[in-house]
Amino acid sequence: MSNHQSGNASNKSVNKKVVLVLFHNDLRIEDNETLVKAATLAESNQGSLMLIYADFLADSFESKDSSQAYHFNEMGAARQQFLSESLADLDQSLQRLGNRLLYLSPSCLSKSHLSSDNVESATSPFTQLCQLIEQQQVTDICVSHTADYNQNKSYVALQSKYPQIIWHSQSTNTLFADLPTQDLPKSFTQFRKKVEASHDLLNADYEVAVSPMPKSLPPMPDALIGRSNYLFKALPFDGQAQQAYSFKGGETNAMIHLTNYFDSAAPRTYKTTRNALDDWTHSTKFSPWLANGCLSINTLLNRLRHYEREVIANESTYWIWFELLWREYFYWYAIEHGRNLFLFKGIGHQLPATRFDDQRLQQWQNGTTAYPIVNACMNQLKQTGYMSNRGRQIVASCFIHELGLDWRYGATYFEQHLIDYDVASNWGNWQYLAGVGADPRGCRQFNLNKQTQQYDPNGDFVRQWQGVVGQSG
Ligand code: FAD
Asked: Which domains does the chain have, with CATH numbers?
């Protein structure tokens, strides 16, 4: 989708604007250029503002690669909970500013998200959205840039259905609004070197700019006030997911975690501890908030720069920036490769020598393979929605090499469960490990015994997550 597409809105220009924000992975009010833009537009002629989260996930999932029937039932409990908490927090913030979050129900989230008088729960979120656009005579749509192929497809579909609506698309998710290099380098190392040579944001003299938070928001359209059928309603949870972790969705919790992390000594040793399998302070744990947009990457970078100035700048603090560049690289990689992100052969020319096998897939998903370390990681993922980077590499390597499975099923399972699911980071990392992506060294296989000895020498992690050997192993 182009960043700014204009339709013919001349017949609407004398009327009040009805501005629609489609939230996606920008679930916050601070440093959210999309929200600022929408508020300014609506305010400019005393118009109204419709703030919507419509999850097109279920509608669009199959269309990634129509030749392959992926296994995907519904969003895992932990991911669902984190998302719901994030939306609830956003709704609270929007209420304080004088508006509300509207929620269009996808089939992969429970209907209890919606108030009981939702008459349109059987209709897809996309159809509901079209009905609202037409009923409310939307004049402008504001969205954040995204590397999510299917989300962008939904935007394109809306643009062609409603060419008269003016689109405004802002960068809210990445360090750079545009690709920071002339072309996307084939490897991360080349990308990093080029970025650091020309755009060294970590060491720049100036603060990274953040958007001001709106002091208040224009109201929602009159016709929607008092109509509860679209209002977001948080899911009641039984509290089972994420028991072992402090991950709680939402911008409020993201800011608390940001403060706690940089008030601690953890950043100064990050590089030496980041590979641990299971400790809250051993890596930053920013990923779920970043992926859902509860935390702005600019705000995080400014906090890191502040830590380097006021506390210490060492190899570990540099390495946090280094990992954030990986995230950035995969974002531009996903933009560049579009639908190829989901192809079996990835961005290469050769099909991998792996295949679909339902029994092995089940063993991997259920933590009943022959490898205790893999089983423990998979149990942790299912119960908490999180797994360390080391764990992800171990289970992905096992999936591809020991079990010989088609990597896309692994990526899809991660998509279902990870609370930090991010289309670019997930599919980009899976391609990389499957040898069909951005890894110049080709397919990497991890020695599972060595990994176990190095990262779980006393078996504590395997015991905690009950990584027993499966019967069929
Ligand atoms: P830290 O080690 O503290 O890193 C700081 C930040 O840098 C992270 O929050 C993240 O935003 C970024 N980052 C770190 N490593 C990577 C990486 N390899 N690729 C991209 N960004 C990185 N990360 C996601 O955010 N969403 C995903 O869906 C995802 N899927 C993955 C799938 C596989 C197979 C693998 C191997 C990695 C995946 N990652 C994904 C990357 C990485 O595992 C997580 O970002 C990291 O474990 C999150 O924990 P943290 O915030 O403590 O990371």
From this structure: 9-172 (3.40.50.620), 174-207+249-340 (1.25.40.80), 358-464 (1.10.579.10)
